[in-house]
Write a structure and sequence with these properties.
By secondary structure, this protein is an alpha/beta fold. It contains six helices and ten strands, in the order βββαββαβαααβαβββ. The mean pLDDT is 90. Bound molecules: adenosine-5'-diphosphate.
């Protein structure tokens, strides 16, 4: 299972005013870790998450996912690595609003060429794990914010990706829903999934943006 190793990773955004968003990040994340990235707005948290999730490239430094040096891997190898190893949870949930909930979960498996019956079974299993098994046929738009975010977690779960990357996954949720989402993420983590998220985990176990 992949260890994530960042060594002196820097990211500079070019433009009228170049910005050094990451100034030498060295960090090792072991499989099964639960990592919360905290800091002030504009501090580079999303940039770091995007680099970790292979959604963006570092300007310099080394980043290894398992044995793969991402700086020298081909674009195709990086795309494969991204889809095999990572699942993403965003603040806005990216669900198929007019379709039954199960479709949003199954879609992630369609990309991975899982046969239909197996997609349905895995989606149902993942939805049950996050406490939404009874809502699999409900139209996604009818769910509450917290339920929608749990569908996004079920989608990550169904793919079986070893690493889940989440950018302020509770940013749009009230405290009860936020707690339910964090509990689902913790359960995922207890089953061995690495969680890397942006957000502040409070003492009572909820997440503050
Ligand atoms: P955070 O997530 O901690 O709020 P970000 O990673 O979004 O911080 O941003 C870090 C810095 O990089 C900020 O100064 C931001 O303005 C800048 N930045 C982020 N994305 C871009 C971009 N695509 N182009 C130029 N500057 C950017």
């Amino acid at each position: 299972m992949p260890r994530l190793s960042l060594l002196d990773v820097r990211k500079r955004y070019l433009g009228a005013t170049p910005t050094d968003a990451l100034r030498g990040v060295t960090l090792q994340i072991e499989q099964g870790d639960f990592v919360a990235i905290e800091g002030p707005s504009g501090g580079g948290k999303s940039t770091l998450l995007n680099v970790i999730g292979l959604l963006d490239e570092a300007t310099s430094g080394d980043y290894k996912v398992g044995d793969t040096d991402t700086g020298t891997a081909s674009p195709r190898a990086l795309a494969e690595l991204r889809s095999d190893r990572f699942a993403f949870i965003f603040q806005s949930f990216h669900l198929l609003d007019r379709r039954p909930v199960t479709d949003s979960v199954e879609l992630a498996l369609l990309y991975r060429a899982v046969p239909r019956a197996e997609r349905r079974r895995l989606a149902q299993q993942a939805l049950t794990t996050v406490g939404l098994g009874h809502l699999s046929q409900q139209t996604a738009a009818k769910l509450s914010g917290g339920e929608r975010q749990r569908v996004a977690i079920a989608r990550a779960l169904a793919t079986g990706a070893p690493i889940v990357v989440a950018d302020e996954p509770t940013g749009n949720l009230d405290s009860d829903n936020s707690k339910a989402v964090v509990d689902s993420l913790r359960a995922l983590n207890e089953s061995g999934t690495t969680i890397v998220l942006v957000g502040h985990v409070t003492k009572d176990g909820s997440l503050a943006g």
